[in-house]
Amino acid sequence: MAATYLPTLKQLQYLVALKDHGHFGRAAEACFVTQSTLSAGLRELETLIGVTLVERTRRVVRFTPLGEQIAAKARVVLREAEELGDMARAAGRPLSGEMRMSVIPTIAPFLLPRILPRLRRDYPDLKLFLREEPSGPACESLHNGRTDCVLLALPYACGEVTAMKLFDDHLFLAFPEGEMPADPAPVRPADIDETRLLLLEDGHCLKEHALAACNRAELRAEATMLGTSLHTMVQMVDNGLGVTMLPKIALDAGILDHTNVVARPLDADHPSRTLALVWRRASPRERDFRLLGEVLTAAA
C-alpha cells in the first residue's frame, strides 16, 4: 500500500497567515519564521498536493480559486487542532493556559481595568490575550479561529455562537452643562434635537443601539456620525458641538471627569444594551467561558 503524505499543520498555518496578511513578509512575522522558511513551506505544500495555491508576482499575492478553498479548509483544520489542546486544558484546572478574547471599543477601556486585576489574582495560570476591535471584525475573528471568545453588546448578529448574557448597560444622553433644564429626570427621545446628536461612525454597534433605543427615523437621518471613540465624543460635547449617547459603564469609569458635560438616563422602550460573552458553539472550553462570564459580571 502506497504511503500517504499529508500536509503538516505548520504548512497550513503558513497558508492561512498568507491569506490573512496578503504579504509574505508580514505572514512570516505573524508565524515567527523567516520569509524564506514560509515560502519554502508553501512550495512544499503545493508540491505535496500537486496544485498551485498562490500566484506570486513582485507586487501582489493572488490566491487561485482552489487556493481560496484550501485556505478556508485549512483554517477549519487549524481551529480543530487547537481545540484538541482546549479539551485537555478543559479537563484540568479552570481558566488556565492561553485564551484569546476580542473586546469591542465601547467596552474595553471601561470594563477591562476592573476585571483584569481580579483575573490575575484569582486565576494566575490564565494567559489572557486581548484584541480590541469592532463587533463585525471581532465576530469574524471568532469564526476564523483568531480569537476564542468575544465580549460585545447585544443585540448583534454574530453568527452561530453561544451567548452568555452578563448584564444590562443603560444608555444616557450627555450634553453640555446648562444646555438642558436642571431637572434630573430621564430624557425622552422626543426631547433630543436631532441636529445636535453626535454618534460614533459606522462599524460601532453602540450607534445602532442608541438609534434603536430612540426609535426616531429623523435621528437616523439627521445625526452626525463622525466619532471614532467615546472619549472623542465627550470632548466634542464638552466643546459645545452637540450631544451624544453614553453607556453607564463609561460613566462609572469616570469618562466625564474634569469636563463640563452632564448625563441623564434615557427614558425609552429599550433604553439599554446587553453586555454578553459569546463563543463558538460546542467549544470544549464552554466551562471556562461561563466561569469567565461569572467573573466579568461580578467585577462589573
UniProtKB/TrEMBL annotation:
Question: What are the UniProt keywords, alphabetically?
Answer: DNA-binding, Transcription, Transcription regulation
**In this protein, which residues make up the domain named HTH lysR-type?**
7-64
* GO molecular function annotation: DNA binding; DNA-binding transcription factor activity
Source domain of life is: Bacteria
Pfam families, per the entry: HTH_1, LysR_substrate
Please indicate if the UniProt record lists Nuclease as a keyword: no
Question: Does the keyword Membrane belong to this entry?
Answer: no
GO terms under cellular component: protein-DNA complex
Protein family per UniProt: Belongs to the LysR transcriptional regulatory family.
- What protein does this entry describe? Hydrogen peroxide-inducible genes activator
Name the species this protein comes from: Sphingomonas adhaesiva
Q: What is the lineage of its organism?
A: Bacteria, Pseudomonadati, Pseudomonadota, Alphaproteobacteria, Sphingomonadales
